[in-house]
Amino acid sequence: MTPAEPSLAAPLPVGRASQSSAPTLRTAPQSAAAVRDPQEVRVIGPQERTSLFALIHELVTHRELIHQLAARDIRIRYKQAMMGFAWSILMPLLIVGAGTLVRVVVVAMTGVALDRTEIGAVVLKSFPWAFFAGAIGFGVGSITANLPLVTKIYFPRSVLPIAVVVSNLFDLAVGFVTILLVLPFLGAKLSFALLWVPLMVVLLVVLAAGLCTVLACANLFFRDVKYITQVLLTFGIFFTPVLFNNVQFGPRGAKLLMLNPLAPVFEGLRLSVMQGHNLLATHSQLMRGVTVVDWQPWYLLYAAVWAFGSLALGLLLIQRTQDLFAEYA
């Protein structure tokens, strides 16, 4: 007969030998910032919560998610729209019409001839403004609109507003095709200054992404941020050189207008495309007998600081506060 196996329910004998023979299992303490997705390999430790490079690396890792969210937003926006993709050029055309009407009224009051390059400048700047207004308008509510997704699985929350900006890039791309077809008839100059256009577009996109992340995070804790943003976008076009140029406000007014972080982007586009001006050089224009400096090279640095500074602030702000998102859902 084989001896009976000891029962697992039987108490172990108490003694020094039994205590030493039974190994003690200890569970490793988990970090508060551990990744909640079991399939995610990389774990962000508390030391990396303030690392901007780690946050950017995490966004690059989730680039496929950004692509899928952006594609979803584009499908929802145009799925059952009667005009389809024509909506992407309707708003810029309305801005062009409003700007042209303003220029006609000004010409009628001052008696100065209307130059076609002025209409070309309005056309050129209306599409970037429509992109910026659309990205901010939709991006400010991107986190609150996806709270069921935010409270169930882990992913970088900054993916949501950035995906909105990427989806609006589709409209900007359609707009640039329209610009290429129209601007040659409105006085655009073919020169090496056109190489500045990609840089201006990058600054515009980064600034939109930065402001979207900041406003989306703020809107989660203070829901009236969305309404304040809509008001600012409605009247912001009158404080941004879209329907007009900064030179029309005189020497002091032109400098004050360029404090708007969007102003260097729009004026840089106008000068490089319509005037063929190198943005590394100062540009001035004679306006009603007064010389007005409408561009200085340090405007580029000013716009870059605003763009990348706001993006860094938005990424760090969301990373620091994302553990509280579920409480405000």
Short description:
The chain is mainly α and 329 residues long. The protein has helices at 16-21, 52-61, 63-78, 87-110, 116-139, 147-150, 159-182, 196-221, 225-236, 250-257, 263-274, 298-321; strands at 283-287, 290-295.
Report on the architecture of this protein.
This protein is mostly helical. The chain has a domain of 215 residues. Helix content is 58%, strand content 3%. It is built from 12 helices and 2 strands; from the N terminus they run αααααααααααββα. It has a two-stranded antiparallel ribbon with strand order 1-2. Strand 1 and strand 2 form a beta hairpin. Helix 3 packs across helix 7 and helix 5 packs antiparallel against helix 7. The N and C termini lie far apart (66 Å). The N terminus is likely disordered.
List the helices and strands and how they pair.
Elements: H1 16-21, H2 52-61, H3 63-78, H4 87-110, H5 116-139, H6 147-150, H7 159-182, H8 196-221, H9 225-236, H10 250-257, H11 263-274, E1 283-287, E2 290-295, H12 298-321
Antiparallel strand pairs: 1-2
Summary tags:
3% strand, 2 strands, 329 residues, two-stranded antiparallel ribbon, mainly alpha, single chain
Which geometry do the CA atoms define?
A: globular
SS-derived structural category: mainly alpha
The radius of gyration is 28 Å
SS element count, helices: 12
Q: How is the largest sheet built, in terms of strand order?
A: 1-2
Low-confidence stretches: 1-48
Oligomer: single chain
Q: Separation of termini? A: 66 Å
Order of helices and strands: HHHHHHHHHHHEEH
Helical residues, percent = 55-70%
